[in-house]
Structures are given as C-alpha cells and as structure tokens.
Design a protein that fits this description.
two-stranded antiparallel sheet; 2 domains; mainly beta; 1 helix; disordered N terminus; 7 strands; 124 residues
Length: 124
Amino acid sequence: MTDELVETDAPTTPATTHLHSSAHVRVELPAQGRAGVDHACMAMPDFDPAKVTQLLVDYGLTRQDGQGRTPLVTYISLRMPNRGGAEGGTPELYFTDPDGLAIQLQDVKYCGGGGFLGEVCPPL
C-alpha cells in the first residue's frame, strides 16, 4: 500500500498510524499535536443539576469535585459573574464517557449567558 498524505494548513510533524493489520498510512499532524474535541454540549428540558448528577451516579459514574477528564465521572463547574454567569454561579454539568470525552448537559434555554440556567443571553 502506498503512503497517503492528509493535508493541513498548520505546521506539521510526521506521524505514523496503523490501520487494520496490514495497512500503513503516513499522516502529517499539526506541530502542536492532534486536533481534537474539548467537549460536546447537549440540552434537556427541566434541567436540574442535582437530579441529573444523581441519575448519572445511579448509572455508575463517579461524582467528582472540580473539573477532570477521567473516564466515567460527573462534576459541576460554576460559571461565575466574571465569566458571564449568575451571581453565585451558573451550574454547568459535565460527565465523561469511557474514553474521557466530556459532555456538557444544560437546559434547553441555555445560551452561555447569565441566570441560573444560563438563559439570560446578551444582545447580538
């Protein structure tokens, strides 16, 4: 099999990865490392951080104080007024999957703004 090149505009360093048992592909990665996803966010109606946290714990996740990317944990980060959150903090609930990918869960009205649910949105 011939080498294939993945194009990127970022400065690159060569890396090699193996696909299947016999395929071999040369991939150019950005110099600072691989691109990735920090987290994904989903919304639900009637969001209650305490109830959702308990449900996740009941499913086997571990409640954690503070942020972290260990697999199968859940935690709440308070976005304070200096970052656009409510007085006392807007709770942002996160949980991680078995690979440590963080999922943020918020109310359907959440816009990253102020208010307890993050629903007070700044004008555009």
